[in-house]
Amino acid sequence: MHNPLFFVTLFLYFAATMGFIMHMVTLRKDAEKAATWVLAGGFAVHTLSIAVRWWNAGHVPMVVMRETLSFLAWAIIAGFLFLQFTAKIKSLGAFLTPLATAIMGWASSMSGEIRPLPPALQSLWLPVHAAVCLMAYAIFFLSFVLSVMYLIQERQIKKKRLRGMFQRLPSLEGLDFMGYRCIMTGFVLLTVGIFTGSVWAEQAWGSYWSWDPKETWSLITWFLYAAILHQRFAVGWRGRRAAYLTIVAFSALLFTFLGVNLLLPGAHSYAKF
Predict the structure, then answer these.
(1) What pTM value is reported for the model?
(2) CA distance to 20, 21, 42, 81, 138, per residue, from 165 (Å)
(3) Are 218 and 98 in contact (CB under 8 A)?
(4) CA–CA separation, 19 and 12 (whole Å)
(5) Digit-coded pLDDT (tens) for 194-240
(6) Least crowded by CB within 10 Å, which of 6, 30, 123, 175?
(7) In 3D, which of 56, 195, 75, 225 has the Cα closest to residue 142?
């Protein structure tokens, strides 16, 4: 089943991406402003698209991979718009929206068929657990992009090449602080996601924890982000070290989200490509 709103969203996200890249290259403020409002329009259409999918499917659209990728992109854009209208992080859109658009493009290549919900997923815990986990992933996605921007900015400063489009990159302090705030928020959400998943697992399978591959890698990811926060508070790690560790933790997160479904069959293997 094809939802035309999905493809309208993809088009608007792509148009916004072009606007943010134009702003990054030309430093034209009107390009950034126009791109932000186009992106906000795309986000509104995306929200409606998810609602329509939910209505047609009769359950929350966060089960098969197309649905989870769509919701992940939606949450990433939601987080970006929040930062854009509150923190005004310059040039973030040029780094973030191409990736969110690519996720939507990937999702569009998958089947839009609505399938019956497996018995194990017919629970009120589904929208809670799935939404919280995907929002945590989206916020960690933001922290990853901010870390990449930090490393680029640091390198440009060291080489004294702050010219052209790199003039739009935020300060190192600002990038480090916003990355830390994202990790804090994502860590809380991931903790809630693991907890709700455990409660749901006990109701569905009679065990709070069974060391399913998804559970195991979620725990590994949780420990990596906990290590980032511990090192920041206990040792004072900031800047480059924190950025590199954030990238490592995000790599584990990607494997938790995608690699487990592809390579490690288990109780969560319903979300196939």
Answers:
(1) 0.89
(2) 11, 10, 26, 21, 26
(3) no
(4) 11
(5) 999 888 877 766 666 677 788 888 899 999 999 999 988 887 778 88
(6) 30
(7) 75
